[in-house]
Each structure stands twice: as C-alpha cells, then as structure tokens.
Write a structure and sequence with these properties.
alpha/beta; 6-stranded mixed β-sheet; 9 helices; binds adenosine-5'-triphosphate; BCAA_Transport_ATP-bd_LivF; branched-chain amino acid transmembrane transporter activity; transport
C-alpha cells in the first residue's frame, strides 16, 4: 500500500545457528489491515514472525515498523513500539489462574486494555477468572493468550495459528474476536493453516515457500487464483 505501510519487511534473511531459514522475505502490512501468511509446514512463517519480534538470533535485511528501523532492535524495544506476538504454543502460565495471567504482562506502552475491556472482548475469561491455566479449554487458552498481548498496549498483533487444534464453534468465536479487533483499529498479521478461516478475515495473503514470499493476493483475487493456491498449499 503506497505510503501507508505500518510494517515493511524487505529482503529478510534469518538463521537458526548454521541453518539458513529465510532467504529474502519481502512484504508489507498497512495500518488497520489483516494480512495472512500462508504456506506449508516448515516454509518459514513462524520464523518470519519471530524475526519481526526480534527473537531470532541472526537476521539481516530491513524491517520497518511505524517508521522505526527494527531490524536490529531488541525484542523489548520492539514491544514498546507496539508489536505483540502470540506464539503457536500460546505462552500462558499453566500454573497461574486467569486473573494472574492477565495481571502479569507489563503495560509497555499506553493503551493497554483494562480488565473490563478484556472481559467485554472475552466474556468467557471473566467466568474463568479463578481457573488455572491448565484447567482451561484450548479455546480459552487461546483467548487468554490474545488478551495478555492486548494488556501490553500492542496495536500490531502477530498471531501464530490461533485456530490450531480448536473445535469449529471455537474457531468461529476466535474469528469474531479478530474481526472486532480489526474494527477497533488493530492491525493483525496472521499465520494460518486453516485457509477457510483466514479467507473470511484477511484483506491480503502472502504465500511463503522455502523461506521466500512466492506470491500474494488480495482477498478479492482469491477465487480467481484458487488453482494456484491449491498447488502452493497442497490442499
Ligand atoms: P510450521 O507451521 O510447521 O510452524 P512454518 O512455516 O511456521 O511452519 P517455521 O517454524 O518458520 O515454519 O520453520 C522453518 C524451518 O526452520 C523449518 O525447516 C524448521 O525445521 C526450522 N526450524 C524451526 N525452528 C527451529 C529451531 N529452533 N532450530 C533449528 N531449526 C528450526
């Protein structure tokens, strides 16, 4: 999007030790968009999110967020700029209850959601306030994980496979939450294997293969490119 990019990633390369995983990832996300990274297992989607969050040891290339160069910034600094990352494994504290999980994340930036705002978005969490992380359903854990990011003041949310392992009715609930966050002005970068879910939410899609972006589509172009997508994703 001309002029309006909140996040610009250009020629990003990343390594785990000696393993060269990303080979030049380039894409952008405009403020207020939902953008989805698609691709087969091991393509490099999670590594892309981790690189943006600053939690990959070795990365090169350009990453600009909100007019700041974050390619070499620490994850603390990146969080303070308003970037939040919800990992696939969700990262909640299993031994703590819901209230404790919600109280722990530091507000690193103004605009962190209050508990009341969290309960408006996630009524289930209010009912489960005293329940331990281990006692929550998968869907409740996912909602708690997103809620924790919202407590920090993040305005740009990176969600790694939020629907993984969840029942269809819960997936719908997560979808409504993401749509609502978008309508409230949050910008969302989603990694999803569930293409149907992503296609109801995302404005644009990028396809990741072998550590590169090999194609991109607007939502309105999906139908016309279904054959290509099938071949990329093997679905
Ligand atoms: P998935 O849906 O399986 O997570 P992905 O597209 O997110 O797929 P990544 O998790 O980014 O893929 O993984 C990209 C490549 O990096 C894979 O080949 C994976 O085996 C490798 N990899 C991931 N994490 C590490 C690690 N900590 N150390 C070494 N290699 C890793």
């Amino acid at each position: 999007p001309a002029g309006g990019a909140l996040l610009t990633v250009d020629n990003l390369e990343a390594w785990y030790g000696e393993s060269h995983i990303l080979h030049g990832i380039s894409f952008n996300v405009a403020a207020g968009e939902v953008v989805t990274l698609l691709g087969r297992n091991g393509a490099g989607k999670t590594t892309t999110l981790k690189s943006i969050m600053g939690i990959i040891g070795k990365r090169t290339g350009t990453i600009r967020f909100d007019n700041h160069d974050i390619a070499r910034a620490s994850s603390d600094k990146i969080a303070r700029l308003g970037v939040g990352f919800c990992p696939e494994e969700r990262g909640i504290f299993a031994s703590l209850d819901v209230r404790e999980n919600l109280m722990l994340p530091p507000q690193v930036r103004s605009g962190g959601l209050s508990l009341d705002q969290i309960f408006t978005l996630f009524p289930n969490l209010k009912e489960r306030l005293g329940s331990q992380g281990t006692k929550l359903s998968g869907g409740e854990q996912q909602m708690l994980a997103i809620a924790r990011i919202l407590r920090t003041g993040a305005r740009f949310l990176m969600l790694d496979e939020p629907t993984e392992g969840l029942a269809p009715v819960i997936i719908q609930q997560i979808g409504r939450t993401i749509a609502r966050l978008k309508s409230e002005g949050f910008t969302i970068l989603l990694v999803e294997q569930n293409f149907r879910f992503a296609s109801t939410l995302a404005d644009r899609f990028y396809v990741v293969e072998h550590g590169r972006i090999i194609d991109g589509f607007a939502n309105s172009e999906l139908q016309a490119n279904m054959d290509k997508l099938h071949s990329y994703l093997g679905v």
